[in-house]
Amino acid sequence: MTTTMNRAATAPLVAERGGAPLALDGVKYHYPARRHQAAGVGPLTLDVAAGEFLCVVGPSGSGKSTLLSLLAGFLKPQSGQIRLGGEVVRGPHPRLTLVQQEAALFPWLTVAGNVAFGLRGVPRAERSARVLEALRQVNLSGFESRRPHELSGGQRQRVALARALVTRPGLLLLDEPFSALDHATRTTLSGELLTLWRQSGVTVVFVTHQLEEALHLGQRVVALRGGQVALDAPAAQTSVDDLKALLGE
Questions:
Q1: Could you give phi then psi for residue 216, rounded to 5 degrees?
Q2: Would you state the pLDDT for residue 14?
Q3: Which of 11, 245, 194 is nearest to 206 (CA)?
Q4: pLDDT at 130 over 80
Q5: What is the dihedral of CA 214, 215, 216, 217, to 10 degrees?
Q6: How many angstroms separate the first and last alpha carbons of the chain?
Q7: Model confidence, pTM
Q8: Strands 220-225, 203-207: pairing kind
Q9: Which of 112, 109, 215, 89 is nearest to 163 (CA)?
Q10: Domains of the chain by range and CATH?
Q11: For residues 181 and 37, what is the distance between their CA atoms, to the nearest angstrom?
């Protein structure tokens, strides 16, 4: 395969700062025939190392959304197991966080309130410190008192990232988080995401339709086709043309 330049492929891993290994062992989930539009997956066997940045690509109907729902614990595998840090995932897990296409912020809460939402039960002083640090990481210091309607689309997505990172997850799932943004904002946030990943060491599974984005961000790329893994390769050894040919685009 053609080799392409990839910044994330050479980034040092810092898994000791929060990443957790992810393992799928014979995972299968198929929807009842003719009763659901989403595509099923499996059986899938896949390992993601602690601190790795994995990108998942594939055409519509390839099973990307089902895979994310399984990883997030929203769906239970019909067969096989998903393990995070050695522990079987049986439902939504405190060590994983999902960031979706829409920021889904609470409009009645401030930026700080939205970021702090997942820290219920954490002592107030620690909660405040962690919120401020998360906002600093996503370049939103000074925006603590703003409401979501006062923010741009890119700023709202930064708040969603801060809300995810403030819980210090072992696994960060991202479902096309930049798809609704313009090209310039998308490029900026992609760069910021790489910086956040390098600093935190969190394990990342990033789903995208954009092949260039997958190769730019990921250390590794998995291509799904018909609910199966059609490609699992280092991003630095893969090109957009390779992926287009494989996926029939």
A1: -75, -40
A2: 32
A3: 194
A4: yes
A5: 50
A6: 17
A7: 0.86
A8: unpaired
A9: 112
A10: 18-95+170-249 (3.40.50.300), 105-168 (no CATH)
A11: 26
